[in-house]
Amino acid sequence: MTGRTDANTPPATPLATAEHALLEEAGLSHADLDQALGRLLVGSVDAADLYFQRSRSESWVLEDGIVKSGRFDLDQGVGVRAMSGDKTGFAYSDAIQLPALLTACGSARAIVRAGQSGRGKPLSAEKSKPLYSDTDPHGSLATQNKIDLLTRVDAFTRSLDERVEEVTVSLHGIQDTVLVARSDGILAGDVRPLVRLNVSVIVNAKGQRESGSSGGGGRYAYGYFQDEDRALTYASEAVRQALLKLDAVAAPAGTMPVVLGPGWPGVLLHEAVGHGLEGDFNRKGTSAFAQRMGEQVASSLCTVIDDGTLPDRRGSLTVDDEGTPSQFTPLIESGRLVGYMQDTLNARLMGMAPTGNGRRQSYAHLPMPRMTNTFMQPGETDAEEIIRSVKNGLYAVNFGGGSVDITSGKFVFSASEAYLIEDGKVTAPVKGATLIGNGPEVMTRISMVGNDLALDRGVGTCGKEGQGVPVGVGQPTLKVDQITVGGTQI
Amino acid sequence: MSKAISDPHPSAPVSLPDEAEMSPLVEQALTLARENGADGAEAGLSVGNGLSVRVRMGEIDTLQQKRDHAFSVTAHFGQSVGSAGCNQLQPEAIRAAVEAACAIARSTAPDPCNGLAEPELLARDPVDLDLYHPWDLNPENAIDLARACEAAGLAHDTRLSNSEGATLSSRSSVRCYGNSNGFLATTRGSYHSLVCVMVAADDTGMQRDYWTTVSRDPARLESGESVGAEAGRRAVARLGAAPIDTCTVPVVFAAPVARGLIGSMLGAISGGSLYRKASFLLDQLNQTICAEHLDILERPHLRGGLGSATFDAEGVATHDRDLVKAGVLGGYLLGSYSARKLGMRSTGNAGGAHNVLVQSQRTLDLPALLARMGTGLFVTELMGQGVNMVTGDYSRGAAGYWVQNGEIGAPVEGVTIAGNLKTMFTQIDAVGADVDMRSNLLTGSILIEQMTVAGS
User: Fold this and answer.
1) What is the band of B125 on the pLDDT scale with cuts at 50, 70, 90?
2) In chain B, which residues have their Cβ closer than 8 Å to the Cβ of A204?
3) In whole angstroms, what is the distance from residue B296 CA to residue B324 CA?
4) Cα(B415)–Cα(A243) distance, rounded to whole angstroms?
């Protein structure tokens, strides 16, 4: 709980930190890594890697005005993978030590017939400039100060409105140290802090209850929440949302123009095009975007980027979980499909370059192509003008989650804060409603793009095949000419 | 091992530790906590073995072999608690976790509702519920089974030319839980599944659907051929799906998605939602919360049941309970903490509901249920979250079939269904006899009198 054991002699690079924490403490040498990779490289295995990880996480939760629970978890292990063509063998060990590592290698290569043992290329360090500090969040604030922070947020939240009935404030911090050793000689390390603070409230107005929630975070130490009183802005936002819902009218049902606000509504892009442009679905031909490279797949106003290099962002990575440096990857340029997000396996099979999107939930999971921070570049129109252009429609500014069927292209995302637009003016707030559309269709119906690009506050987690990874989204205000709104009011 | 996989280091499943190996570690952790100043403690540890194989287009896609460990401890200092966990079972790792839990417990604020479960509620004589059927499965057998499943799917129709594969997974685990009120028990369980995901295509586009079979006993899994064929049938049936016009119609939730409705009801009567006032069923005990022809029963002791347990996550004995009787809410789902918050007793539901059975005096087979609906939407898939647990407002993406005069017609997608769960529960008109056995929530299809469908 008190920070790194090597705090007196801080290593210079994330790789050095990772080698110290994951190899030296376990008595493992580069020669041991070579031996393990050699054991994976048998017969027709054409690539292999080892992924060492130590993840330290803590959480503190305030309810009923007191911090009544706290938890600390330490998870570590090594995942080993052998790839032969499009086949993948995978095993892992919770123990970071040579015999267990070699046993896991024996299991992972069970996808191929035994054959001549191979040898990986000599390991050499991948040197990427870190995109975030390696400060351990846990040690960045004394325990009492964490408790004081939550208590202060609670008091502030309750002071905002007498209708606030229940307040839950949670603080989470993770310090993730990873090391990747690959048969093609890449040795990469990363030290990834990730913090999050969340405020949830229930308000009660004469027996009518509504909820609101807000939060944020990123690859920071806990001081982030104290700077500029950020934690208090989450509190204000949670209360504002909850109170707003007290007056919400039934949402409309049917197809109509929808204006999406800037920032977190970018979950639209994550669902409508993001998943469909992940390399694995396109290699397998199961994505609605498969075989469409170079084609116009969105209105010419749309330029969509996946960028893992934004400093300190929740979705950013100095190197991905395969040791590839993250990058700025254009996916759609002026409406034309120009790029997929790739991990090494799918890049190799498709004859493309990896894009630094190979991610995994942990050492116990296989890497896959995953998004980092996915957003749309700004256009030139003022948000007010976009709203004015709609006679009758919906203005949706905040969302819960979303999901997509990448094969049919159908996607949903759930508006948690939305308003009617009547005669070009934002009027009554409406109850939450799910929006549903077809990704490729909706992207062609984006008819106006605002000049107000914003990224989300750092709260997103993306799930795919049961694996969760932190991601970011963003967009400017934009107008979709027609999308189905799932309210109750016909 | 076979000739296809001639590994010199065969990865035969490693056996799970037995009670004699697990119990001392739990007792040691409880003792350590007390030595660190705790007044009480509870600890659990588990070990699991897993094998998972995915075959896609006839070839191995992924082969994963897993063995995982988990340790978790909660230390009680007076009325304060702290928790910690790790994935190592070595004495030094357990010691570090216990010390971390104790350090946290010294920092958190006291809450009179904290504390171990009351000793008189703890399970006395845990019985064997037939939950452990490990599968002596080597990678090659698993590959063959998955391959046959996928092949049956692809062969079902010429429009099935692609697949996301068939995945066979098998897992066995053992868990030991103990607390300083004298409870200590070790349980074993197994869980096996086969899932097939087919992609159909024609000039209207691509559609994907899946089917799965799950069981604690491999002998009770559906055949791979039938799983593959059903996945294929479902994917093909969706080809040409289109939105319908916005309307208000009756809706049948097919059994696999109907359990989400019951899941929302269980969430709303769970202690955590109730004491936080984040439930649309607040203060409804002994009130009518759904149609009067419905009983919703908790039956934790079904032999081989996916949710079966003789005790809950705190060691509290489980009992048969009538959660809803003739539409009236008869009880909540409570663990020790939420029970004390509400001034009640634990119901043995720390960790959630066990097996839940939905029974109706108006049970019809599926064709009769669709006939009773007449004209409306038969929903076979739901998308997104879209459930507000505080208000019960419900709005989700849906796909399925338009039903005309009881006959299943054109496939539908790209629509939403919306309503409020409080109303929807009272508008449950009938329940299907087609009970889906693949989860701990056992329900047939559910007919709701009326919902708003938003479409084109």
Assistant:
1) confident
2) 277
3) 5
4) 29
Tokens 């299943």 — which residue? B408
pLDDT tens for each residue of B197-255: 999 999 999 999 999 999 999 999 999 999 999 999 999 999 999 999 999 999 999 99
Dist CA B344 CA B332 (whole Å)? 10
Q: Is A485 helix (H, G, I), strand (E, B) or coil?
A: strand
d(CA B257, CA B386): 14
DSSP state at residue A110: G
Q: How far apart are CA B314 and CA B332, in angstroms?
A: 17
Confidence class for position B14, pLDDT limits 50, 70, 90: low
What is the per-residue DSSP string for A14-47?
A: HHHHHIIIIIGGGT--HHHHHHHHHHH-BTT--E
State the pTM of this model: 0.95
Contact B250, B235 (CB under 8 A): no
Closest CA to A298 of A265, A273, A261, A274: A273
Q: B152: helix, coil or strand? A: helix
**Domains along chain B with CATH numbers:** 19-237 (3.30.2290.10), 247-454 (no CATH)
What is d(CA B321, CA B81) in angstroms, rounded to the nearest whole number? Answer: 30
Please name the residues between 239 and 258 in chain B that touch chain A, using a CB distance below 8 Å: 241, 243, 246-248
Beta-carbon count within 10 A of B91 CB: 12
For B413, the closest of A143, A284, A410 (CB atoms) is A410
Residue A431 CA to its chain's centroid (Å): 27
Q: What is the pLDDT of residue A4?
A: 42
How high is the ipTM of this complex? Answer: 0.94
One-character DSSP codes across B318-355:
P--EEEEETTEE---B--HHHHHHTT----S-TT----
B204 touches chain A (CB under 8 A): no
End-to-end CA distance of chain B: 57
Q: Minimal Cα–Cα distance from A383 to chain B, Å?
A: 27
Q: Which two tokens stand for residue B75?
A: 């230390």
Question: How confident is the model over B251-278, as pLDDT tens digits?
Answer: 999 999 999 999 999 999 999 999 999 9
What is the average pLDDT across B141-153? 97
Residue A81's nearest CA partner among A124, A118, A31, A45 is A45
